[in-house]
Design brief:
- By secondary structure, this protein is an alpha/beta fold.
- It folds into two domains: 202 residues, Rossmann fold, CATH 3.40.50; 67 residues, no CATH class.
- It is built from twelve helices and twelve strands.
- The chain has a six-stranded mixed beta sheet with strand order 8-9-10-3-11-12, sandwiched between helices. Strands 2-1-4-5 form a four-stranded antiparallel beta sheet. It has a two-stranded antiparallel sheet with strand order 6-7.
- Helix 5 crosses helix 6 and helix 10 runs antiparallel to helix 11.
- The longest helix has 16 residues.
- It is globular, with a radius of gyration of 19 Å.
- Bound molecules: adenosine-5'-triphosphate and magnesium ion.
- Magnesium ion binds next to helix 2.
Length: 286
């Protein structure tokens, strides 16, 4: 963890988040904080609730119970006498502007070129001046390596390029927090790297990021903390080396073993039993 991240107050605090769909309880009391400037990778089996949790952060899903606080502000509801009431749509929309989200499937507007995708929200939602928004958007497209693709339409761009436009689009609203939901999982392996590089750059610039991912090498290199979620709760959380190489919980080890194949499974088991001293040294950062 960076020194900045250890001393900063939490930018995001999720407390006791519950969410069910019908009879199926997906989140069963998730507690998770992310410090300002911290990069947290969320890992867990398919169906464990990573997407649901990310969507609860910006109230695309309304938690059944629990609270979401971003930068000191309670999201999606307010206290009225002794109970909470949902925040009016306009106010929720205003809160969402400070939370950028990047989805697995890009979700660009197909009938708009890259530049128009990026300026759409600043102009339409934040009422920015078109010239100012355009200059900022071109800067952002440059930052994600797409200065020459400003006038290309999504169908003319590769998946990796579309995802980089989607990142620029989210950044255009100047978010204080960025959520990424498996941003590379629908990309061909050879273009995963270009998207991860952009995310690495964002992390290096101090962006606060919560990232659901199956890219363990990215988590290991870039995350300050890795959080393993399974069965609707946070099972384990800590420094990447600790969680990914010397997990405390059997469920975490099994998940990683399935992900990495038998060779990695044996290595992980050896680390878990043989690497205790090493693990204690790194544990204080979690
Ligand atoms: N809108 C919905 N209605 C009903 N069930 C849902 C809905 N959204 C998610 N679920 C269920 O909630 C559970 C958690 O789904 P979620 O998409 O959050 O998992 P995930 O960890 O993101 O999985 P993956 O790694 O495959 O993306 C799954 O069983 C899913 O079927
Ligand atoms: Mg998901």
């Amino acid at each position: 963890m960076t020194p900045q991240a250890t001393t900063a107050p939490p930018l995001l605090v999720l407390a006791d988040i519950h969410k069910s769909y019908g009879q199926a309880a997906v989140l069963k009391g998730v507690d998770l904080s992310v410090a300002a400037g911290e990069v947290v990778c969320l890992i867990g089996p398919s169906g464990s609730g990573k997407t649901t949790l990310l969507r609860c952060v910006n109230y695309l899903e309304v938690p059944d119970q629990g609270s979401v606080v971003v930068d000191g502000e309670l999201i999606g509801k307010y206290q009225r006498k002794d109970r909470y009431a949902p925040l009016p749509d306009r106010e929720l929309a205003a809160q969402r502007r400070s939370i950028g989200m990047v989805f697995q499937h890009f979700n660009l507007f197909p009938h708009m070129n890259a530049l128009d995708n990026v300026i759409e929200a600043p102009i339409g939602v934040r009422r920015s001046d078109r010239q100012v928004a355009t200059a900022a958007a071109l800067d952002l497209l440059n930052r994600v390596g797409l200065a020459d693709k400003a006038h290309a339409y999504p169908r003319q761009l590769s998946g990796g390029q579309q995802q980089r436009v989607a990142i620029a689009r989210a950044l255009a609203m100047e978010p204080t927090l960025m959520l990424f939901d498996e941003p590379t999982s629908s990309l061909d392996p050879e273009i995963v790297g270009e998207v991860l590089d952009v995310m690495r750059g964002l992390a290096a610039d101090g962006m606060t990021m919560l990232v659901a991912t199956h890219e363990m090498s990215f988590a290991e290199d870039v995350a300050d903390r890795v959080v393993f979620i399974d069965g609707g709760v946070v099972v384990e959380s800590g420094a990447p080396a600790e969680v990914l190489r010397a997990a405390t919980h059997e469920r975490t080890r099994q998940f990683l073993a399935r992900l990495n194949g038998p060779a990695a499974s044996a290595r992980s088991a050896a680390n878990a039993t043989g690497g205790r001293d090493d693990r204690v040294q790194t544990a204080s950062t979690g």
